[in-house]
Design goal:
- By secondary structure, the protein is mainly alpha-helical.
- Helices cover 78% and strands 0% of the residues.
- It folds into 2 domains: 2-174, no CATH class; 176-206, no CATH class.
Amino acid sequence: MIAQAAGGVMQSIASQMAAEKMRSAFKGEMQRQNRYRNEAFGKWQPHAETLGSEQATKDIAQGKSDRIAAYDDVGQNRFGQYDVATNPGMLQASLQGDARASLGGYSDYALRQLVRNIRLQDQLNRISNFSQGEASVFPLKMQDAQHSADKLAMWGQIIGSLGGAGSSFAQFNQAPQNPYGGNNTYVGSLGGIDDGGFGNQYEGQV
């Protein structure tokens, strides 16, 4: 009886330990996924600020300034041709160069935005790959946690079964009781030797 109780207690403890391991594994997975989510949001939020008109205006102006500086660096006017001798020609070339540089600023803004989008996508893909990798092994971690206390549960079952076997052995090892009274055994009673048995019951009638 004591062994059965001890075995039951051990199995109960093993079940509680496994449940705690599973809760810990689940909590750890949620924490990891939250970290990946926060990291992805941290990458996306600054990028979202570049999608408005303010960033577009800034990039267009920067593109125009860079193109004008490039024209000057190569010794050309802003139209992209070598300087002309007449002042009207210089003025026309400068105006055309400014227009060309402004138009190129839009192209530079689109290129910069494309580069930012590609970089953001690469960062998000990296975070997503790590997140998916963690999620793919999570069922295995839960399975390991579920069976983490199997050895203790097994020993509890063994001890409990030994207690049950001992109880059964003690029950079947008792001396058989005579249903007709007396202290005799069946063999003695049939022989008519012991008191209260079949022998005394039919004594003098045979």
